[in-house]
Amino acid sequence: MYSVTVSHHLMVAHSLVGEVFGPAQRLHGATFVVEATLRREGLDADGIVCDIGRALDLLKAVLGELDYRNLDEMAEFRGRNTTTEFLAGEIHRRVARRIRQGVLAPTDAAAIHSLRVVLRENPAAWATYDAPLE
What we know:
The chain is α+β, with helices and mostly antiparallel strands. Helices cover about 25% and strands about 35% of the residues.
């Protein structure tokens, strides 16, 4: 199994509903380091998993939809706790959709078979969503 990982960051504002979240129930900012790992069984004819520059551009484009936004004000997240775990899954879905649409390259869409997204809240805590591309 081969993989390529690209990383970028994301800054958001949000609040979380529920006693379990303590002071995070109030509106607060969060800065996440986001890693996306793309996997495939074999290398392509050029000896790569995919073009790293295109993979990084893809991650930046997805994160750009959320960056510097108050997630509480976004219609698609209304009624949802935008926890680190939830956001890892949401970013995974958005990146996976674009890979399937051939954003990296048409041939990579079929070859990339799984994706792992890690959101690091800080050096001691992070969440991961890892699933095959379907």
